[in-house]
Amino acid sequence: MMTTIEIRAVHQRFETFEALKGIDLTLNEKRIGIVGSNGSGKSTFARLLNGLLIPTSGQVLVDGLDTAKSGKAVRRKVGFVFQNPDNQIVFPIVEEDVAFGLKGLKLPAAQRGALVEEVLDRYGLGPFRSHPSHTLSGGQKQLLALAGVLITRPDCVVFDEPTTLLDLRNARRVAKVIAEMEETVIVVTHDLPLLQSFDRVIVFDQGRVIADDEPNSALARYVERMQ
Amino acid sequence: MRSRGEISSFLHELPAAAKLLVLAGAGTGLVLVGSLPVLAGAFLATLLLYWLAGISRRQAFQQLRPLLWLLVLLFIVQGVWQSWELGALVVLRISTLILLAAFVTLTTRTDALIAAVESALTPFRRFGVNPAKVGLAFSLALRFIPVIAQQANDIRDAQRARGLGANPVALALPLIVRTLRMASDVADAIDARSPYSDHSGDEGELPPRFVLQPNTSNARMSCNDAEPQLKT
Ligand SMILES: Nc1ncnc2c1ncn2[C@@H]1O[C@H](COP(=O)(O)OP(=O)(O)O)[C@@H](O)[C@H]1O
Ligand SMILES: [Mg+2]
């Protein structure tokens, strides 16, 4: 199912510092990229999309649900993959970690097991199911983080710099997985080639949107601005 | 690295609650006992447990390695200021405790451990203790001990590269800052990753997107979600 996220007149302040200075956007494409230099407000923006952060003023609506009022319902629709997988893997063993997303659901054990197996196999993590999660490689950890999000069956997944901490080979692998996902994806990244096949790229600079277009024009504008 | 699931022994099969009780008892005993031969015996008995469970010597050593420098430091400090016997006593006591705790986690599934902790805490519900939350905290502790130990190693390596010696305070400060920053990320991740749990341990109705479709194989579920606006 396609998700529509509306961002209406959003400002985000941290004490006196204004990290986002008036954002108005409607996101309903299948693949959206977010770029911008460090400190431009990308992570702040990403965290608004599933209610991890509530805007200081303005509104964020996910399929009509206000993130300030319906946090849980919003997070069922919008999953989030953090930059550092080490901080979002919360169980000591791979399969236990993936199953965490099902916590609170009245599921028969067999079905729970089948769901865990399905996502682990999808990312080649099946052979590692009973391994301690801290012994996986960086790329495997990021895939485990993604598996732990996808098991909740979100309609949309937000990624905050999913490949920044990875070596080139693992970064390629994770980028390929993202490019091939069925779900709607919103990706904050510095990996510009990844965005070539996207539907839309939004450029942030100092808390404002300075370009919002198809990838080629938006990235050209970004590169020009950074010189 | 060998992992749970690939090895199995009668020790793996013991109920988690029994292992936790024995661990708590042994832990208390180790702290109370002050006799070097008894502690040395306890240390050897723990190694025997590892052998019985089929855990490799290498993996047993891996449990102690992150704390090795601390143990050496303790031994020297106690030895110089008190007595070498006391140094040996302290090191044996701590090593045995760590090995025993690691033994329980290596031979028990985390969900079984959590279930044991949760049911042990159920009587305390009336005092405002939420067993599901404590269970989660418990698994987080198990998960992040190796991560924090790794960070301690990284920081120490960086300090050594700059010619700084092993100073516990110089290590502790950056480690605490990093751990706190990590903790706030982890709290966000828990929120983001468990949209169906209120951490009360109670289970709600199954939402449509998880309902099994009658005409498909059991692994394939519907992704349609026609549920109305949910109240939270
Ligand atoms: N919790 C916070 N408290 C104070 N300042 C913050 C907080 N989060 C972000 N900021 C500030 O907001 C600005 C934008 O941060 P961020 O959204 O993380 O940027 P980006 O992800 O583009 O690098 C930065 O200057 C950062 O220091
Ligand atoms: Mg960021």
TrEMBL record, chain A:
Lyase keyword on record: no
Record-linked Pfam families: ABC_tran (PF00005)
Domain ABC transporter span(s) in chain numbering: 5-226
Keywords: ATP-binding, Nucleotide-binding, Transport
A single GO cellular-component term on record: ATP-binding cassette (ABC) transporter complex
PROSITE patterns: ABC_TRANSPORTER_1, ABC_TRANSPORTER_2
SUPFAM superfamilies reported for this sequence: P-loop containing nucleoside triphosphate hydrolases (SSF52540)
UniProt-recorded Gene Ontology molecular function terms: ATP binding; ATP hydrolysis activity; ATPase-coupled transmembrane transporter activity
Keyword ATP-binding: yes
Sequence similarity: Belongs to the ABC transporter superfamily.
UniProt name for this protein: Biotin transport system ATP-binding protein
Organism this protein belongs to: Afifella marina DSM 2698
Phylogenetic classification of the source organism: Bacteria, Pseudomonadati, Pseudomonadota, Alphaproteobacteria, Hyphomicrobiales
From TrEMBL, chain B:
Predominant location category: membrane
Keywords from the named record: Membrane, Transmembrane, Transmembrane helix
GO cellular component: plasma membrane
Compartments in which it is found: Membrane
Membrane topology (UniProt): Multi-pass membrane protein
Region listing for Disordered, in residue ranges: 194-232
Stretches that traverse the bilayer: 20-52, 64-81, 87-106
UniProt entry tagged with the keyword Membrane: yes
Family from the record: Belongs to the CbiQ family.
Classification via PANTHER family: PROTEIN ABCI12, CHLOROPLASTIC
Protein name per UniProt: Biotin transport system permease protein
Organism: Afifella marina DSM 2698
